[in-house]
Design goal:
The structure is a single chain. By secondary structure, this protein is of the alpha/beta class. The chain has one domain (42-247): Rossmann fold. It contains 10 helices and 7 strands. It has helices at 4-16, 36-41, 88-98, 106-113, 120-123, 139-145, 149-161, 183-190, 198-203, 222-233; strands spanning 79-85, 131-134, 164-165, 169-171, 194-196, 210-218, 239-247. It has a 5-stranded parallel sheet. Strands 4-5 form a two-stranded antiparallel sheet. α10 (222-233) links the parallel β6 and β7 (239-247). It is globular, with a radius of gyration of 18 Å. It binds zinc ion (2 copies). The site of one zinc ion has 8 residues, from loops.
């Protein structure tokens, strides 16, 4: 974010929210809301991680390995990747962002997600470049929250990496919380919950393209699965990789 526009936006945010670390309250500058110590203290998902779902695998295992949960399962996305573990301080920041409506934290979360560019599988896709698509919220939830947490992160990330961000998906069904349902029930519960946006149905800008599906947290993977299925089946997307800030 080097343009004068984003600088002035950062100053405006400084004015609204006196810049201090979201965790330890140390005073900060330049529109930052996490101090270097707190940022380094977040639990990154270290290798080895599952090549499909991105979950960390304990013990000494080869690098190209599937975790026990992913063995024998089919996915509509190529693989999922998360920057940090959704526990401790990282979960605290995400909670403040989503439920405390501290929308100014989106930049810190986008910077965290940007660490995925250390992964050669992300870097290797440059021609054609990734198109970022945020997981949509149902309008009713978005009205309640005021913003779509995934879109704010995707937009900032796209700006930083000089990539396109498309709100190509719509959530047409408001589904009950489903973390406790078995996998088959979760997928059935989400069946038909997403569709292509009207614009995307008209312009078909994702056809044959590689998409980075952006979300705040990857938990059971069923939301990512349903979005990826819609992007492939309806949008003709060639490749879908799920990038989240946190891994539940
Ligand atoms: Zn701090
Ligand atoms: Zn896995």
């Amino acid at each position: 974010m080097n343009s004068s526009f984003s600088m002035s936006l950062a100053r405006w945010l400084d004015f609204l929210y006196p810049p201090s670390c979201a965790l330890c309250r140390t005073a900060l500058q330049n529109g930052r809301y996490l101090c270097p110590e707190c940022r380094n203290g977040l639990h990154r998902i270290e290798k080895p991680y599952c090549i499909k779902c991105g979950d960390h695998i304990e013990g000494l295992v080869p690098e190209d390995v599937l975790c026990s949960q992913c063995r024998g399962l089919e996915f509509s996305f190529d693989f999922a990747l998360a920057a940090a573990s959704a526990r401790d301080k990282a979960a605290e920041i995400m909670h403040a962002y989503k439920y405390g409506r501290q929308i100014h934290l989106h930049r810190e979360l986008a910077l965290l997600a940007e660490e995925a560019w250390k992964d050669p599988r992300i870097v290797a896709q440059s021609n054609p470049p990734w198109i970022l698509v945020p997981v949509p919220l149902h309008w009713r939830r978005q009205r309640w929250r005021w913003f779509n947490q995934s879109y704010e992160i995707a937009r900032t990330l796209a700006h930083r990496r000089n990539l396109r961000c498309e709100q190509a998906l719509r959530r047409i069904r408001h589904t009950p919380q489903q973390a406790l349902l078995p996998r088959a029930d979760r997928l059935a519960n989400l069946n038909g919950a997403f569709r292509l946006s009207q614009r995307e149905r008209r312009v078909r800008s994702l056809r044959g393209q590689p998409v980075l599906l952006i979300d705040d947290v990857f938990t059971t993977g069923s939301t990512a699965e349903e979005c990826a299925r819609t992007l492939r089946k309806k949008g003709g997307v060639e490749k879908v990789v799920v990038l989240t800030v946190l891994r539940g």
